[in-house]
Each structure stands twice: as C-alpha cells, then as structure tokens.
C-alpha cells in the first residue's frame, strides 16, 4: 500500500482498490516516513483498525531504515504510531538496509537502538539487518534508482558500462548473486505465500 499526501496533508491511497487487495490475502505494507502522519490520519478516519479486524486481515508493516540516526528515528516513530493504532492486529518488522556500507554498529549505544531492541525482545517487532552489497553493478543500478533485481537483470549491460573483464564479471556476478540470495532468505518469512 502506497500513497500520497494531498495539499492540506490528507493521505490518499495511490489506488482506490488497495484495501480490497489487502482483503484477498496477505499484505505487506511499507508506508514511507514522508507520508506516515497522513497515513495514520487516514487510517483513523477510515476506521482501518475495525475494518481489518472485521475482515480478519493481518497486515505486516515494514519500517525500512538506512544507517542514519534520523532514518532510524523515523522508522521507530512510524512503528509506534501504527502500533498505537493497530496493536497486535498487525505484525511489524524493521528492515535495516545497510545501503552505504557504514553498518548499524555506530548506533548500538543510542536510545533509538535500545528502543528497537526492546520491541524485538518483547516480541512485538522483528529486526532484519540487510547486508551491504559490494557489487560494482549494484552501485550502477543504485545510481539509476534501479532495484537490486534490476542489477541482475541488466548485469551484462552494467558490466559493459563498467568495462569489467571476464574475471571481474565473474567476481561481481558472484557478489551480486550471493547478496540477492541472502536478502531473499532474510525477507522470505515476511512475504506473502
């Protein structure tokens, strides 16, 4: 479920039928931090908690953050807002994406990290840490706002642009494939069947 915020701050689903899509099967909801307040207001006005309970829907909310204290805080604040609204009628996962390779170790002493770990220890939210992808082709894909899947699909094109020789291509393919397989394995438990 994605959405946009109208002038005046009202959240609107991108597609009117999105709630209907949630009703027909498992749903993973990734609401970006920039629309969280609007989403929560819309959810309250639309009586979303009652609707998901009536229709026996168990959405999964994914809160994605990069290695940045503001991103972690936004993810935690979003989680707290949704959890306050839906409580145990939804599942929650923090997806910590080490996109830049700096990792999350530098945050382990911060209050926000302590709060994330507390939610995990209380079994109210999961934490998944995605590793940094060291593939050169992945960097090309990211520079074009393309997904890691696109890095595999367009591997030869990107490798040509980088001027990778055969050993370089083999190494980069192995890095990209290993990363993709690892991330898929980490996220599979959270994806609809």
Task: Give a quick precis of the structure.
This protein has 193 residues and is of the alpha/beta class.
Arrangement of strands in the largest sheet: 3-4-5-6
Largest sheet: 4 strands, parallel
Oligomer: single chain
> Pairing-aware structural class of the strands and helices?
alpha/beta
Order of helices and strands: EEHEHHEHEHEHHHH
| Number of H- or I-type helical stretches | 9
State which percent range the strand residues make up.
Answer: 5-15%
**Which stretches of 5+ consecutive residues score pLDDT under 50?**
1-11
In total, how many beta strands? 6
Mean pLDDT: 85
Overall morphology:
elongated
Features:
single chain, about 190 residues, alpha/beta, four-stranded parallel β-sheet, two-stranded antiparallel sheet, 9 helices, 6 strands, about 50% helix, disordered N terminus
What does this protein look like?
- The chain is of the alpha/beta class and 193 residues long.
- 50% of the residues lie in helices and 13% in strands.
- The chain contains nine helices and six strands, in the order ββαβααβαβαβαααα.
- It has helices at 18-23, 36-45, 48-54, 69-86, 111-121, 136-143, 148-153, 155-162, 166-187, and strands spanning 3-5, 11-13, 28-29, 60-65, 91-97, 126-130.
- The strands form two sheets. It has a four-stranded parallel β-sheet, sandwiched between helices. A two-stranded antiparallel sheet has the order 1-2.
- Helix 6 (136-143) packs across helix 8.
- The protein is elongated, with a radius of gyration of 19 Å.
- Residues 1-11 have low confidence and may be disordered.
């Amino acid at each position: 479920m994605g959405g946009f915020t109208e002038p005046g701050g009202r959240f609107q689903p991108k597609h009117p039928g999105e709630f209907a899509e949630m009703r027909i099967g498992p749903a993973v909801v990734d609401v970006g931090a920039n629309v969280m307040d609007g989403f929560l207001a819309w959810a309250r006005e639309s009586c979303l908690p009652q609707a998901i309970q009536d229709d026996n829907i168990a959405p999964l909310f994914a809160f994605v953050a990069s290695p940045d204290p503001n991103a972690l805080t936004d993810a935690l604040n979003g989680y707290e807002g949704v959890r306050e609204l839906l409580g145990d009628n939804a599942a929650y996962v923090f997806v910590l994406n080490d996109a830049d390779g700096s990792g999350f170790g530098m945050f382990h002493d911060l209050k926000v990290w302590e709060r994330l770990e507390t939610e995990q220890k209380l079994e109210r939210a999961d934490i998944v840490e995605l590793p940094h992808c060291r593939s050169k082709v992945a960097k090309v894909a990211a520079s074009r706002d393309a997904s890691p899947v696109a890095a595999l699909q367009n591997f030869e094109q990107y490798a040509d642009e980088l001027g990778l020789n055969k050993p370089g291509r083999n190494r980069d393919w192995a890095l990209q494939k290993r990363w993709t397989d690892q991330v898929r394995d980490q996220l599979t438990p959270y994806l609809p069947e």
